[in-house]
Task: structure prediction
Amino acid sequence: MKIYLDTIGCRLNQAEIEQYARQFRLAGHTLVPNPEQADLAVVNTCAVTSAAVSDSRQKIRQLARHGVRQIAVTGCWSTLNPADAAALAGVRQVIPNLQKDRLVPDLLQVSLPEFDPQSTGRQPIPGARLRTRAFIKVQDGCNNRCTFCITTLARGPGRSRPIPAVLADIRAAGDAREIVLTGVHLGSWGQDLLPPSPLCRLVEAILKETEAPRLRLSSLEPWDLQAGFFHLWQDPRLCRHLHLPLQSGCAATLRRMARKTTPESFAALVAAARLAIPDVAITTDIITGFPGESEAEFQESLAFVRQMHFAGGHVFTYSARPGTAALRLPDQVPHPLRKERNACMRAVFAEASQAYQSAFIGQVMPVLWESAAGLGEDGWEMSGLTGNYLRVNARSSRSLWNQITPVRLSALTPDGLFGQVQT
Ligand code: SF4
Result:
């Protein structure tokens, strides 16, 4: 069969679609870059915001317009709205998130042969470029009840993948220069295993048993990190980057969000990380306009974010999701004000990010080149990331795609740092 794959949303969805690609290939099917050529299309949907929901629906409608007769839909939006998904033209199956790890064998009605990394390797999904970073799913679901979050409903309780399965996936990622561990609630990895195991065991096993030059942890909830966790960074393969979602810098807002952290404990964690991991990039997520966020609360949040000197972050305008506790909270903030606050918060992040980046001007740092565009006689224009998540652009006489090379950082531009490749 000819299969077309598409995904919307987070890195976890990306990791899953890459897994489906490997499994379809392993079962002898061909992936195609255009839906017109497909006998079957699989869409991994998202429900994190109303925009993601409308994207999900639109992608499915477009597939039907392109004449795909069999569409299988999975992911957060279709799990929360199975009847709506099933009613869309061309949709033959809606696979709930709790069954998505068996999506390929279930659709094909076969049992997949034992996965053999040597025989399949890593190939790009047609129409997408092969990534230099491989997203590896190590965990799914979440046992927390943050009041704004739809994920716990859509993805179910926390489940960890055992170490041998994760190691097998990493080995299958073959030549990926960077492994990114992903999960809905990555920091809770191991809590449901028998016997329970802390996340540091998984990281230690990966560092010991696999060879990828870089290992990056995606998002970690601040309350999950135990004392001593940062000793792992004595291994230089672990990227000096921590994404610690804060969501608000105001204690009262955090309580209404049911987050298990306070600005004080968050600040202490960041201080410990900075002490243990020199030059670490700390990034975060912030929501503006959460229900009940008064002007005073927002100013408190803004001041705390300023004080944290983040290397970067994502600012989300609060979007009420059906089925969440926050939907029923009083004092919903008017939409224009949510957006105004978002812009203010972004300005603070932009300033902090520039300060963080500027501190590295003059240094030589290893960069993993993610893209290389040919400029004819002028060589190649490349873009990549340092371990501490600095975006770096440079020119080179040859393509260095998927290589890690030292670069002297010389200037800050609107697109990131500019540097000279050191030979
Ligand atoms: S920790 Fe909170 S925000 Fe994160 S997935 Fe769980 S419930 Fe959602």
About this structure: The chain has a mean pLDDT of 92. The radius of gyration is 22 Å.
